[in-house]
Amino acid sequence: MGKVIRKQIDVDLSSEQAFNAFISELALWWPKAYTWSKDKLVEISIHPIPGGHCTEKGPNDFRCDWGTVSAVKHGEYITVMWQISPFRVPEPDPDKASEVTIGFRTITDGQTRIELRHDHFENHGEGYEKYSDAMDGEQGWDYLLACFAKHARSGSGITAEVKS
């Protein structure tokens, strides 16, 4: 078994609000620099049902599925098969995907701990060790969760429910 990345961050939202903002407002907080489309990004979304996709859409009908939702319990967690290879290439084979679970746990009324777990990097094959180190570093999940926390603090766009 390979390395398991665990990260957490607290936000001043209910678990339902945090879950909904994380999923429905992905385009508002996920950095465009972390997409293939960069500044030409048209849409980035997660369809939060088992078998749903995490999808990026760019110019000229560009589309790339980053992952596939394998489990979800609204307001509590979502698990995605992470289908981006260590060489930053989409990986259509789910057997070669790692797994990301994001949990939303109520700490107090109006405050939620977001707990991220990213594991099974070994499924990616060659280069997985460097990949897991990068995702565990300052420019990996730490940065991405900080982007979400900043969005949560801003309060802009925080929705009441997930859009399907």
Give me some keywords for this one.
7 strands; seven-stranded antiparallel sheet; 164 residues; globular; alpha+beta; Alpha-D-Glucose-1,6-Bisphosphate, Chain A, domain 4; 22% helix
Radius of gyration: 15 Å
The overall pLDDT, averaged over residues, is: 94
Low-confidence stretches: none
CATH arch. level architecture: 2-Layer Sandwich
Please give the count of helices. 4
The percent range for strand residues is 25-35%
Order of helices and strands: EHHEEEEEEHH
CATH class (first level) name: Alpha Beta
Largest sheet: 7 strands, antiparallel
| Cross-sheet strand order for the largest sheet | 1-7-6-5-4-3-2
Q: What form results from the Cα inertia axes?
A: globular
Number of strands: 7
Q: Supply the CATH superfamily name.
A: START domain
Class from helix and strand fractions: alpha+beta
CATH topology group: Alpha-D-Glucose-1,6-Bisphosphate, Chain A, domain 4
User: What's the helical proportion of residues?
Assistant: 10-25%
Cα(first) to Cα(last) distance is 35 Å
Number of discrete domains = 1
Describe this structure in words.
The structure is a single chain. By secondary structure, the chain is an alpha+beta fold. The protein has a single domain (5-153), classed as START domain (Alpha-D-Glucose-1,6-Bisphosphate, Chain A, domain 4), CATH 3.30.530. The chain contains four helices and seven strands. It has helices spanning 15-24, 26-29, 128-135, 141-154, and strands at 5-11, 43-46, 53-57, 63-73, 77-82, 98-108, 111-119. The chain has a seven-stranded antiparallel β-sheet, covered by helices on one side. A hairpin with a 3-residue loop joins β4 (63-73) and β5 (77-82). The radius of gyration is 15 Å and the shape is globular. The relative contact order is 0.24. The mean pLDDT is 94. This is ATPase. It comes from Parapedobacter pyrenivorans.
